[in-house]
Design brief:
One of its GO terms (molecular function) is NAD binding. With about 350 residues, the protein is α/β, with parallel strands linked by helices. It has 11 helices and 12 strands.
Length: about 350
């Protein structure tokens, strides 16, 4: 039996969490997957109750589970997900951007993945004041981190039914030491994966080309801050940040979460889009299938994708996607598609 830690989050988090759990129940029932969902306290409510956004008992529960699904968290988000990425060494942030029926994307054929190094770079939090009128931030870049994120990206490109290409995105023309190290590591890894077409692109050029020719990309591998920015851009280019799932993956553990925030302005209105979290759950099934050689989980991942495409093609969507359906109605429609198989 799989033990899945579930953080319901803040803002719209509880609403889209309920919708996702309905879908999980339908998938597990249809395919005979044994799964126990374990609620985990984390986020703003945990901070108010315990004085910590991620209490020690919650971390223990996560460590004892097979994987974690995390809905968006409010003001304390960094104290939860950034900490978990570091303590669990979840070095690969994987962000698909894909065109779906009815989305107002720039192109119909968009199907790319951004692989973002998740543990260092300028996001290491090493910031210091110099006197009273200047500050500095240290951009941490290690060969170990660069090599393993590059290796992950190339293996992903080999496994995808895509264009079998990897683009390394950096700014090594100006940041010659840090980004230069990243670029050299990507070239070294590329030399061991001759079946994958490899190229490099400066981050500003990549931002432009994601708009000009997004369907040309397959796998993008990049550093932490660049990936954070480019992945949001790619999601909107494909149609909506509300359709953007993500995974934080390490060698033995993974956390799956939507790319968007907690949207407190629409919380409680029943109109929040649950698809990003449901797609993230689909990524979890895919990861479990790969880790445990579980064909049922592989089928569950495919069913999530097929069912969401079918629902969207029928015009069933929340208002942010141009529809008139509620969060619950979208989830129920997906469940019906799953039952039909």
């Amino acid at each position: 039996m799989y033990r899945i830690a579930f953080i319901e989050g803040d803002g719209i988090g509880p609403e889209i969490s309920r919708a996702t759990r309905v879908v999980l129940d339908a998938l597990n029932a249809r395919l005979g997957i044994k799964m126990r969902i374990i609620d985990v306290e984390a986020g703003d409510s945990a901070l108010a109750r315990y004085g910590r956004a991620l209490p020690e008992h919650s971390l223990d529960t996560i460590r004892g589970s097979d994987a974690c699904i995390k809905a968006p968290i409010g003001e304390s988000a960094a104290d939860v997900i950034v900490y978990l990425r570091r303590v669990l060494d979840l070095y690969a942030n994987v962000r698909p951007a894909k065109a779906y029926p009815g989305m107002r994307g720039l192109r119909d054929g968009i199907d790319l993945i951004i692989v973002r190094e998740n543990t260092e770079d300028i996001y290491s939090g090493l910031e210091y004041d110099i006197g009273s009128d200047a500050s500095i931030a240290i951009k941490v870049t290690t060969k170990r981190a660069c090599m393993r994120i590059a290796e992950y990206a190339f293996k992903l490109a080999e496994a995808r039914d895509g264009k079998r290409s990897v683009v390394a995105v950096h700014k090594a023309n100006l940041l010659r030491r840090t980004d230069g190290l990243f670029a050299r590591c990507c070239r070294e890894v590329a030399s061991r994966h001759q079946s994958i077409r490899f190229s490099e692109m400066y981050v500003d050029a990549c931002a432009m080309n994601l708009i000009r020719n997004p369907e040309a990309f397959d796998v993008i591998v990049t550093m932490n801050m660049y990936g954070d920015i480019l992945s949001d851009e790619a999601a909107q280019v494909a149609g909506s940040l509300g359709m953007a799932p993500s995974a934080n993956i390490g060698d033995t553990y993974a956390i799956f979460e939507p790319a968007h925030g907690s949207a407190p302005d629409i919380a409680g209105k029943g109109i929040a889009n649950p698809l990003s979290l449901i797609l993230s759950a689909g990524m979890m099934y895919e990861w479990l299938a790969s880790k445990h050689n579980d064909a049922r989980c592989a089928e569950a991942s495919k069913l999530v994708e097929v069912s969401i495409r079918s629902v969207l093609s029928k015009g069933i969507a929340t208002p942010d996607l141009g529809g008139r359906s509620s969060t619950e109605e979208v989830a129920d429609a997906i469940v019906e598609e799953i039952k039909r198989g």
